[in-house]
Structures are given as C-alpha cells and as structure tokens.
C-alpha cells in the first residue's frame, strides 16, 4: 500500500523511473531481436462455417525475449512504432509470412491467402507496392495469395490512400479492412477504395448474445458487405452461441478461439492439412 507524504511520492517516482528504464531496455533488446532471430509468427486459421474448411490464415508476430519469454505484439508493436523499428519488423514479418505460405503451397497445403497486418508507417512508406512486389518475387508467392490487413484510420487521407490501394490492387494483392467499425468509419471509403474483405471487430462480437444493438450492427455490416460484393469475416468468436448468431445473420467466415487460437506453423500443419498430402 502506498503511503502519502514525502516517502510515498518518492516511492511513486521510483516506480516511474523503473518503468521508464524497463521500456528503454526493451527498446534496446527489440533493436537486436531480428538479428538474433527472436521474432516468430503464429498463424490463426479463418474458417468457412458451412464446411469448417480453412479459407485464409492470419500471421501474428510474437517476440521470444531471451529472459522475459514470449512478448505479445500488443506490448512491442507500439514500441516498434515509436522508435521506427516497425519498418524492419514489418519487412521481416512480410517475408516470413510469404515464404511460409509459399512453402505450404509447395507441400500440397490449401491454396489460400495469408493475411499480414500492416502498421500505418508501413502503409505510408514510399514505393510500398514495389517493395511488397519485390518480397513476393523473392519468396515466390503469387500476389493473389497475399492479403494486407489495414485499418480505417490509415485511410483518413483519402487521396493518398486511393493511390496506394489502387496500386496494390493493380498488382493483384488483396486488401482487408481490419477492426471494422471501430475507427473513423466512413462508408464512402468502401465505395472509393478497392477493398476485398471486411473484418468485423471483436468488440461487436463479445456481447452479441445479449446485446441487441451489437447484433443489429453486425447484421448491418454483413448485409452491406454482401451488397458491395465484399467478403466479410467476423473475428473473436469464442463460443457456439456467438457462432450461431453469425450463421443466422449469414456471416459465412469466422476467426476466433472457438475454432482455433493462433498456432505455430507446425501445429497448423498438424491440425489443418490433409494427412498424407504435406
Ligand atoms: P488484430 O490484428 O486485431 O489481431 C487479432 C488479435 O486477437 C490477435 O492478438 C489474436 O490472437 C486475438 N484473437 C483472435 N481470436 C480471438 C478470440 O476468439 N478471443 C480473443 N480474446 N482474442 C482473439 P495478438 O496476436 O496478440 O495481436 C494483437 C494485435 O497486434 C493485432 O490485432 C495487431 O493489431 C497487432 N499485430 C500482430 N501482429 C502484427 C504484425 O505482424 N504487424 C503489425 N503491424 N501488427 C501486428
Ligand atoms: Ca489483423
Ligand atoms: Ca482485428
Ligand atoms: Ca514445415
């Protein structure tokens, strides 16, 4: 328990100093993490509910820290963005994800796209399309098997994003709108930009069995996506009851713990590849 008075404040400020030191230390470690081969990808299947088949898979980065163990992207991606390390990390993720998908294709795995999360800084880097094309060339993955997950807030500057997205689209790369409904949603974006898929954010799914507003919002997003000829997927499905509502609302694709947590590459092969084919 913190005490008031001089010592209390002293204690508090020591805490702050300690936190800051930890963050600086983590930054330094993160700088070396790529070279030390400490980053790894997990993969979460995207499932078509009519036949439980895997129709896509999302790459999610983790950091295996030498003393702290596995650190989640929610902790180190913000640090990477602050320090500019996100560009190197993002490049590593893209290359690793594309190489893994190409290998799975070669081994007779399903011909599905891999989804990769892009940060805002990556999205706005010059020559993004050319740079991604060079990674595809290097790894041998065809462009239609790469799906980039971006968020609505990245597209605030409509003229800039139109240019970037049209270029990616011309190359055959797919675009998915992540966390849909949580950002600066503008329906005009959906009309303006070449978007292949809309991902309904988990915050609308969490209470969907009790909350009629969430249910209505989700039903509306699904109907809208269908009218605009976009794919729609719901994320964060954890229970059968949630799944039943989504199925009832005609959402054919879902991602969430109910079907699978993010898995290591080996576990993906074991759980989802047809035996004998890989
Ligand atoms: P996101 O892109 O929205 O990814 C979904 C997150 O929800 C993942 O957390 C995933 O493990 C988690 N999740 C999936 N299904 C369920 C479920 O049924 N219930 C619950 N409670 N959670 C579920 P993760 O892997 O910790 O990633 C967190 C965020 O970090 C991601 O959110 C994404 O914004 C960011 N991130 C992850 N990998 C990368 C990356 O390679 N690059 C960038 N720029 N960001 C990344
Ligand atoms: Ca995502
Ligand atoms: Ca998301
Ligand atoms: Ca393998």
UniProtKB/TrEMBL annotation:
<feature type="domain" description="EAL">
    <location>
        <begin position="23"/>
        <end position="276"/>
    </location>
</feature>
<protein>
    <submittedName>
        <fullName>EAL domain-containing protein</fullName>
    </submittedName>
</protein>
């Amino acid at each position: 328990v913190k005490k008031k008075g001089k010592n209390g404040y002293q204690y508090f400020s020591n805490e702050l100093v300690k936190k800051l030191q930890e963050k600086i230390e983590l930054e330094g470690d993160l700088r070396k993490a790529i070279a030390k081969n400490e980053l790894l990808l997990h993969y979460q299947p995207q499932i078509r509910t009519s036949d439980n088949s895997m129709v896509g898979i999302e790459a999610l980065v983790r950091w295996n820290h030498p003393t702290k163990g596995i650190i989640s992207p929610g902790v180190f991606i913000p640090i990477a963005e602050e320090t500019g390390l996100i560009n190197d990390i993002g490049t590593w993720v893209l290359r690793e994800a594309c190489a893994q998908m190409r290998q799975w294709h070669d081994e007779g795995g399903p011909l599905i796209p891999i989804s990769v999360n892009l940060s805002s800084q990556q999205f706005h880097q010059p020559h993004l399309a050319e740079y991604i094309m060079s990674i595809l060339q290097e790894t041998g993955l065809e462009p239609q098997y790469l799906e980039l997950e971006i968020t609505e807030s990245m597209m605030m500057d409509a003229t800039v994003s139109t240019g970037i997205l049209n270029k990616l689209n011309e190359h055959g790369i797919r675009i998915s709108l992540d966390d849909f409904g949580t950002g600066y949603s503008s329906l005009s974006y959906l009309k303006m930009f070449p978007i292949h898929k809309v991902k309904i954010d988990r915050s609308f799914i969490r209470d969907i069995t009790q909350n009629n507003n969430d249910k209505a919002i989700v039903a509306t997003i699904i109907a809208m996506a269908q009218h605009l000829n976009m794919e729609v997927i719901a994320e964060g499905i954890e229970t059968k009851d949630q799944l039943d509502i989504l199925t009832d609302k005609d959402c054919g694709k879902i991602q969430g713990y109910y079907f699978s947590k993010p898995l290591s590459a080996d576990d993906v092969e074991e759980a989802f590849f047809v035996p004998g084919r890989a």
